[in-house]
UniProtKB/TrEMBL annotation:
<dbReference type="Pfam" id="PF11790">
    <property type="entry name" value="Glyco_hydro_cc"/>
</dbReference>
<protein>
    <recommendedName>
        <fullName>Asl1-like glycosyl hydrolase catalytic domain-containing protein</fullName>
    </recommendedName>
</protein>
<dbReference type="InterPro" id="IPR017853">
    <property type="entry name" value="GH"/>
</dbReference>
<dbReference type="GO" id="GO:0009277">
    <property type="term" value="C:fungal-type cell wall"/>
</dbReference>
<dbReference type="GO" id="GO:0071966">
    <property type="term" value="P:fungal-type cell wall polysaccharide metabolic process"/>
</dbReference>
<feature type="domain" description="Asl1-like glycosyl hydrolase catalytic">
    <location>
        <begin position="8"/>
        <end position="221"/>
    </location>
</feature>
<dbReference type="InterPro" id="IPR024655">
    <property type="entry name" value="Asl1_glyco_hydro_catalytic"/>
</dbReference>
<dbReference type="InterPro" id="IPR053183">
    <property type="entry name" value="ASL1"/>
</dbReference>
Length: 282
């Protein structure tokens, strides 16, 4: 198996105050890095490598100073800019702001990840056009960032390979900065056993791919309002001590029981799933 340094957290800033990310830095942890959809560093991340993200073009002039404050060696580009309900940026706008505020970081030696595209068909089209445009101006991305949501392993693998080989340079690595198994049906979600097996098997597969440098499963969050999905669709509870939570009904989660050692030794913490979600903290 490849180095566990691939394994990371997409850690919402809303988690701070409920859960502390430093619990994942204890001895034996296989988590090595995190990002939080923001250029502001997560408090108490200890040994985890924090990677700032410039979610859209708002306040992009602050990116360089925040990356410097965080001692960042890499930054992540815009979040799903091809989608109206995400950063919603035209290629023209994204390229202009990249050249203005991200390119100076690249010239200073910071690795600059591409905008993270969704697995919707327009994602790869958008990214290819974006890369072409910044390359024409002497810039480039340092690595490619892909997201994927769907049901079956084969669909995920096909997406990864086909999208990677549509990129202009296969010497560059891929970061899978969001992925999960979901059918988007809150009334008839996928069985939790399917999602557990998918998470474990797909992450182990990513470990075997030399061109996948890092990955982060979506997602370890309690605050469903921040989860980028409608409120009753996504939530995850977790503890690092392996005991695992069982809802008493006061937090809006139904009792599902312990999913002890769900992904052990893949990830060294316990998770529980919302009854109306297919995303797990993994």
């Amino acid at each position: 198996m490849a180095s566990p340094s691939k394994r990371g957290l997409c850690w919402p800033t809303a988690n701070h105050g409920q859960d502390e990310v430093h619990t994942f830095t204890r001895p034996g942890s296989k988590i090595s890095w995190l990002y939080n959809w923001s250029p502001d560093a997560t408090p108490n991340a200890n040994s985890l490598d924090y990677v700032p993200m410039q979610w859209n073009h708002i306040h992009i002039d602050d990116l360089a100073s925040k990356a410097k404050t965080a001692n960042a060696t890499a930054v992540l580009g815009f979040n799903e800019p091809e989608l109206p309900d995400q950063s919603n940026m035209s290629v023209e706008l994204a390229a202009r702001e990249w050249l203005r505020c991200v390119e100076p970081l690249r010239k200073a030696g910071v690795r600059c990840g591409s905008p993270g595209i969704s697995s919707a068909p327009q994602g790869v089209v958008w990214l290819k056009e974006f890369i072409g445009r910044i390359r024409d101006r002497g810039s480039d991305v340092g690595f490619y960032c892909f997201h994927w949501y769907g049901v079956e392993l084969g669909q995920f693998y096909d997406y990864l390979w086909s999208t990677y080989y549509q990129m202009p340079d296969q010497t560059k690595k891929v970061w899978v900065t969001e992925w999960a198994s979901t059918n988007w049906d809150k009334d008839n979600p996928l069985p939790k056993e399917h999602v557990e097996a998918f998470a474990k098997t797909s992450a182990e597969y990513l470990d075997t791919l030399e061109w996948v440098e890092r990955y982060a499963w979506f997602g370890p969050m309690r605050d469903t309002a921040f989860s980028l999905f409608p409120d009753t669709w996504v939530a995850a509870q977790y503890k690092a001590d392996g005991t695992g939570p069982q809802s008493d009904g006061h937090d809006g989660l139904q009792k599902l029981g312990n999913l002890t050692n769900l992904l052990h030794p893949l990830y060294p913490y316990h998770t529980a799933m919302h009854p109306q979600t297919n995303a797990i903290c993994a």
